[in-house]
Design goal:
single chain, 685 residues, alpha/beta, six-stranded parallel beta sheet, 28 helices, elongated, binds thiamine diphosphate, binds magnesium ion
């Protein structure tokens, strides 16, 4: 105790060295990880976390906290050290278990695994785009909810990004839009260390980054010595002062700072320094403590729990007075931040389903989607739509849509421009921020441009809604560059991605309902360009749509065969079934708008829809056939498209690829004839 009292408060450098030591020791212990970046950015992090970041370690979910995003996620130990030292629920034991099974300190920061980690990072550049989404979230909510004298949404988004993040194309997409939207509370630190994995970046990265960001309309604070705390503090202050533009602080740093033989070299980027070098670092930086021992005085200097509690308590007081002055707004804000749907939601949906069923209209499902938004949108003000420059094609805008702009962010629609990847990662950032339910459109084919952000939504379990129109050869003349064939299947392959391909306006409403209600992960809505006929349903069938697959047309008695179809091919299936019925065949049609939801139903339901005894099954979908064999079995047939599309009118293409009712009927006949032949030959039941 007396020792502690006598100890002088540790200097900034000593505090930063604690981060360096924890990082290099954890990496050394795991013999795996990235010590260079944490050692290089430790001084910057110390200034930001000590003097600027408004957060509360005791409540990582405090809605008005500043967001901190480590876009160069390979430097995860930097973040874990900061969280541990400042008092988050991340123990020294967890630091020691860096990169081990079930630890809270995985190789790259993972949302949901570690308190205080705002987003999963590692795929370079994407954290930066997530942060743009978070800053948009803040700006939109602030514009909508704050009132004179009652500011309840007011926080910044800070990002660490490296050369890799800025080399990645997504940094251009996202930062360009951030400039246009004037995201003044977004502050990015560029770790300009001149090194990436292959060595000195002069061989492959010679952009004038400062000019590039200035051209996007950012405030650029260049030439900051990232190891001079005073210079870093001044830069942050200047960045905070400019609330009209996002800020880039270009920090010159030395990767692996403090390592006598490895600093400034790529060798410290992604491998343990080695026991000998770790010992040399201790000498060089003057850190005499053994691994994983931090002096109390250093912990005390880092501890942000007291200041965090005060910050949150002060916000609580502001919120209370806001609640008194604007009770309705305050209720709505709380509901949205809690991620809860309005109390009249189910009634709204039920009304929309019955109205759509009663209308019995034959429309393209992209248009049905717009009609659904028209009815559901007013009930869900947290919906924030957008499109990657295909608004008129995706039909993502409805009459209540209002564009968000630099000068007026109290809206619910974002013109993302032609930036599918950034749009997707930005939507993830908005979903992570909370208070908003983002959806955004493009052609299904261009989901590939955005693929990794789509995957990250699923990995993180955030409820982003991807609206993908022009879902097949049904788009016609634009040809194979625009016609999705494998995208439907590959989206279904992403764990935790829910994929809906509705067959008419009614299924489209239910798909939207499922997407909006889903909290645990993203949804892809696959919608047609072309008009699709309305399907008649009894009340029980309307109810069954939400089970992902259901009997749309049935026969009397046990079916001879089952046709399974999705989206635009359901009409072919029902037509084929009608033809077959005329010939005395008992054929059931199963509409399967969402395989993952169907798969999650109980055995009894799935057996009721697809009885195991009925092995003559045909699946039809204008896409690659692969994923349907698990539903039709080895004895079944799949009518799909296992090649690229072609440029021609849609009707001609459906004929060319054999996606016709006649072909479906013929496939069923072939199966039944083969079975009859086998039975006659005594080959089994
Ligand atoms: C999209 C993506 N591509 C490749 C990688 C693999 N990778 C991880 S770090 C890195 C180099 C990054 O260089 P920089 O950002 O300068 O990091 P530093 O070495 O300075 O810490 C690469 C290529 C990745 N994580 N993400
Ligand atoms: Mg670098």
């Amino acid at each position: 105790m007396s020792d502690n009292l006598q100890e002088a408060a540790p200097s900034r450098r000593v505090k930063a060295n604690a981060v360096r030591a924890l990082s290099m020791d954890a990496v050394q212990r795991a013999n795996s990880g990235h010590p260079g970046m944490p050692m290089g950015m430790a001084d910057i992090a110390e200034v930001l976390w000590a003097d600027y970041l408004r957060h509360n370690p005791a409540n990582p979910k405090w809605p008005d906290r500043d967001r901190f995003v480590l876009s160069n996620g390979h430097g995860s130990m930097l973040l874990y050290a900061l969280l541990h030292l400042s008092g988050y629920d991340l123990s020294l034991e967890e630091i020691k278990r860096f990169r081990q099974l079930h630890s809270k300190t995985p190789g790259h920061p993972e949302f949901g695994e570690t308190p205080g980690v705002e987003t999963t990072t590692g795929p370079l550049g994407q954290g930066l785009a997530n942060a743009v989404g978070m800053a948009i979230g803040e700006k939109v909510l602030a514009a909508h909810f704050n009132r004179d004298g009652h500011v309840v949404v007011d926080h910044r988004t800070f990002v660490f990004a490296g050369d890799g993040c800025l080399m990645e194309g997504i940094s251009h997409e996202a930062c360009s839009l951030a400039g246009t939207l004037g995201l003044g509370k977004l502050i990015v630190f560029y770790d300009d260390n001149g090194i990436s994995i292959d060595g000195d970046v002069q061989g492959w990265f010679t952009d004038d980054t400062a000019k590039r960001f200035a051209a996007y309309g950012w405030q650029v604070i260049s030439d900051v010595d990232g190891h001079d705390s005073g210079a870093v503090a001044a830069a942050i202050a200047a960045a905070c002062d400019d609330e009209a533009r996002p800020s880039l602080i270009c920090c010159r740093t030395v990767i692996g700072w403090g390592s006598p033989n490895k600093q400034g070299k790529e060798s410290c980027h992604g491998a343990a320094l080695g026991e000998d070098e770790v010992a040399l670092v201790r000498e060089t930086i003057g850190w005499p403590h053994p691994p994983f021992e931090i002096p109390d005085s250093v912990y005390a200097a880092w501890d942000a729990r007291g200041s965090g509690a005060r910050l949150e308590a002060e916000w609580d007081r502001r919120l209370a007075s806001y609640r008194a002055a604007y009770p309705q707004l305050a209720r709505d804000l709380s509901r949205r931040l809690d991620g809860e749907l309005p109390s009249d939601w189910l009634a709204t949906v039920a009304g929309c389903v019955s109205a759509t069923a009663a209308r019995a209209g034959s429309v393209a499902t992209r248009r049905a989607s717009q009609l659904a938004l028209e009815q559901l949108g007013p009930a869900v003000p947290e919906l924030v739509g957008g499109s990657a420059d295909l608004t008129g094609s995706n039909l993502t805008m409805w009459s209540g849509s209002k564009a968000i702009s630099r000068s007026d962010a109290d809206g619910n629609y974002i013109f993302y421009g032609v930036r599918e990847f950034a749009m997707s990662a930005i939507m993830n950032g908005m979903a992570l921020h909370g208070g908003l339910c983002p959806y955004g459109g493009t052609f299904l084919i261009f989901s590939d441009y955005a693929r990794n952000a789509v995957r990250m939504a699923a990995l993180m379990g955030v409820p982003t809604i991807f609206v993908y129109t022009h879902d097949s050869i049904g788009l016609g003349e634009d040809g194979p560059t625009h016609q999705a064939v494998e995208q439907t299947a590959t989206l279904r392959l992403i764990p935790n991605m829910s994929v809906w391909r509705p067959c008419d306006a009614v299924e489209t409403v239910v798909a939207w309902q499922a997407a909006i209600e889903r909290r645990a992960g993203p949804t892809s809505l696959l919608l047609s360009r072309q008009s699709l006929p309305h399907q008649e349903r009894a009340e029980a069938q309307l109810q069954a749509i939400r089970r992902g697959g259901y009997v749309l047309r049935d026969c009397n008695g046990e079916p001879d065969a089952i046709i399974i179809a999705t989206g635009s091919e359901v009409a072919l299936a029902t037509e084929a079934a009608a033809t077959l019925a005329e010939r005395g065949r008992r054929v059931r049609v199963v509409s399967m708008p969402c395989t993952d939801v169907f798969d999650a139903q109980d055995d009894a339901y799935r057996e009721a829809v697809l009885p195991a005894a009925v092995i003559s099954r045909v699946a039809v979908e204008a896409a690659v056939s692969a994923c349907w064999y698990r539903y039709v079995g080895a004895a079944g047939k799949v009518i799909g498209i296992d090649s690229f599309g072609m440029s021609a009118p849609a009707a001609k293409l459906f004929e060319h690829y054999g996606l016709t009712a006649a072909r479906v009927a013929a496939a069923v006949e072939e199966l039944l004839t083969a079975r009859q032949g086998a039975a006659a030959a005594g080959g089994g039941p």
